[in-house]
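Honest question from a wet-lab person: if I give you the sequences of every part of a complex, can you actually get the arrangement of the whole thing, not just the pieces? Trying it with mine:
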Amino acid sequence: MNQPNNSTGVHATGLMKLWPSQKKNQQDRVGLNNLDLIIPAGKTFGLVGESGSGKSTLALALLRLIKLDAGEVWIDGQAIHALDEKGLRNQRQHMQLIFQNPLAALDPRHSVGDAILEPLVLHNVGTAIQRRQQLQNLFELVGLGRTLASRYPHQLSGGQQQRVMIARALASRPSFLIADEPVSALDAPIQAQILNLLRDLQTELGFTMLFISHDLAVIQFIADRIGVMYHGQLLEQAENNELFSNPCHPYTESLLTAAGASHQSAVVNPGKQQQEINQGPNSCIYAHSCPRVMQKCRHHEPSLRYINKSPPHWVKCLHYEN
Amino acid sequence: MNPLVSIRDLSVSYPGRGTASALKHINLDIHHGETVGLVGESGCGKTTLALALMGMLPPGCAWQGEISIAGQQVDFYQQAGRASARDQCAMIFQNPQTSLNPVIAIGRQIIRIIRRRGGLEKQPTQQRLAEVLSLVELPAECSKLYPHELSGGMQQRVLLAMALARQANILIADEPTTALDASTRMQILALLNRLQQQQNLAVLLISHDLSAIARVCRQVLILYQGRVVEQAPQELIFRQPRHPYSAGLLAAIPKIHRRRPDKLLSLPGDASLEAVTSGCAFAPRCSRRDVYCEQQLPPLNCALDLQQRFACFNPRPIQGGLK
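Yes, you can. This is the full assembly:
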């Protein structure tokens, strides 16, 4: 990474995280495996992958909500990995997170207005009167009626709860927002409303976003750049249109087949993420269920190969190494 | 032939949760081997209908109407009648982990069900266990594992194995694939299809995911605020939805496009928040409404070919349907 401390956006290099095993005779589970990520300021990076592939681990790691085994994270020139506790606390207002289940993230005994104001109070932003004003602006911003501020989370519908979560995340004007499956629990019409809202808000406010989803159609709509994650690694990364028109990694292809052909029966390779994968240390992590597996895939670890230099489209697959 | 399940004029309401009822005047027949899909947004009454069929409506809820299963009327107030009706049905849920006992190996959990149906001898029980596991494509070694050692897809397979072990005629699947990944979802739906054909099961699939419904079901019912707004064979619903709500639902499904789209189509408003009106419940969100819609309740009419029924005064014209 060249001079990340001068640049804006999100830069992460060499992220490693092993989840220690619960049992004696089990191996540690791989959370993140030497992962690099760059999100240019003001852009949305879409992260797809099956459950257990480490998507949420990456989200938590970027915000330093879990302790990394190795790696560096820079957000807008700030070295997040090197901050002390006080510095981290101050930095938190610039990086926020939206979760999948708003009901689990909102305090059932606080009105949603109080919930939205809490980050402002914690970070000592403005006076009480200014905060009230800010609350009204936020409600308007996310398309909620002002009268809802005194309601409690359970009195709102799922879509409204998610709007409250977005308002709370945006309250402190973050420059980096992570949305971890924010629409998976919503019905299709509401899902579309929330996605439209998030994209409009980004255009208006210009924050950088990491958007996590297992739904490729959602990712196609929201993301500028897309990374395909498998077992703690990114296997392919490309611009939005490029990834859908020219998928290179066999895993990306199988994901696209599974998602795109909704009226035909698709050939799907079972991902064996949950099971132990017993392979040599030097093999492609996808070799065990790859439809295009070659003999050398089981003995060589693929390195990063560029399909396109600009805009960068790269893939980790031995088929593209000569 | 008599239908396997027949629901006549079923209404259910939960007192204490406002005046809105969960289901209003539902009529539905399911024949042997038929696949019916039930679609709607959350809170529209999908699950209530499934619970009513299983005789599992929560205590204190008020209901009217008639349900008969295999010619036998279900009386929710009588333990005996309820049990025999349940013998015909098996139900699988969205979250398989909450349906499985965490401290018992799954083989033993399945065997318990087999014994209830078919006696206590060891040999045939073990045979039957191996049989149902292979039907759902689980390796035999899985029977020694505990639920937490299985992935979500495998847990859902275990529940399907349990449904087969019961030798039920009707399988009620309440959002069985919502919690699964795209590729696992396809596998489970394919399995559901295969089992349905092999065992000639009648399936009631409840989902808000129309693509899942498209894969499994021949008949589709679209529910809005407790009422059936459209009922038709699957091809017709997807090709030419007549009710504006069906069309809106179809348009809002996230699809993969050739290029990144600029805006997603959606319905305005939120189903769970609309006030109860005397007219069509969908009117406040509908782009085709007129004065009449807000005053009168549209009945479930038949289109000319009698296959497609919809409750709308201003249905979409036939040519204008989505492809």
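Two things worth pointing out. Chain B touches chain A through 40 residues (CB under 8 Å). Residues 182-199 of chain B form the longest helix (18 residues).
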